[in-house]
Design goal:
By secondary structure, the protein is α+β, with helices and mostly antiparallel strands. It has a 5-stranded antiparallel β-sheet, sandwiched between helices. The longest helix has 24 residues. The model has no long low-confidence stretch (mean pLDDT 92).
Length: 149
């Protein structure tokens, strides 16, 4: 069963506190941020399809330094137990390069490997939603935390 992905905005102080947390503490912190009104974006289970569409490989094989891979799975991975999920962050000063790379994508050329058209359209929609979310993060001067649980 695929796991659900979510992106949440965080300020510098929050990110600093999160760096030493375990998986359950990270999840609790993200939930509190959302409950407190922090901007967030739910990609549900389509993060894997989006990663494949942008890079041609599974998100389980993130490509270090590839801005499109990092757009989906984040840049800096939090060290947590595998059973706790996956957590990564993209810092505010890294957003500009990721946004620039995303703006160069031709959505008609996504690597969707023959999936049905409805799923292809969903992946395109998630891409546009994620790009908008990254633009909001950059404008607000916030970091982005990505979680898969």
């Amino acid at each position: 069963m695929a796991m659900r992905g979510q992106y949440v905005l965080a300020d510098e102080d929050t990110l600093e506190r999160m760096m030493g947390m375990d998986g359950s503490e990270l999840m609790n912190t993200l939930e509190k941020l959302i409950e407190g009104g922090s901007e967030h974006y739910d990609i549900d289970k389509l993060w894997e399809e989006l990663h494949i569409g942008l890079t041609g490989v599974s998100a389980s094989e993130p490509i270090d330094g590839d801005r499109l891979s990092e757009a989906v799975v984040g840049v800096h991975v939090f060290e947590v137990e595998e059973e706790d999920g996956f957590f990564a962050c993209t810092e505010q000063d890294e957003l500009e390069d990721i946004i620039a790379a995303m703006q160069q994508v031709d959505l008609d050329k996504l690597e969707t490997g023959g999936v049905e058209e409805a799923l292809r359209q969903q992946v395109k929609s998630e891409f546009r939603g994620l790009l908008d979310f990254y633009r909001k993060a950059a404008a607000a001067g916030k970091h982005v935390i990505f979680s898969v649980v």
